[in-house]
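Teaching assistant's notes for section 4

Start the section by putting this record on the projector. Ask students to predict, before seeing the second block, whether Helix-turn-helix domain-containing protein will look compact or extended. Collect guesses on the board.
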Amino acid sequence: MTRQQLAQCAGISAKTLKNWMKPFEQELMAMGMPQGKGLLPPNVVRWLAEKYCIDIEG
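Reveal the predicted structure now:
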């Protein structure tokens, strides 16, 4: 899933998602999140979805 797709599931802009992710950047990088563009690994998507109550099944 891309950042844009995850943001759409949350009903927010990609910029807002980036701001939400910023405080956890080091933790997310350790989980395998790529810098810049690219697909988010499933474990990162799952972590963000649980953290921010995003429905990714929808």
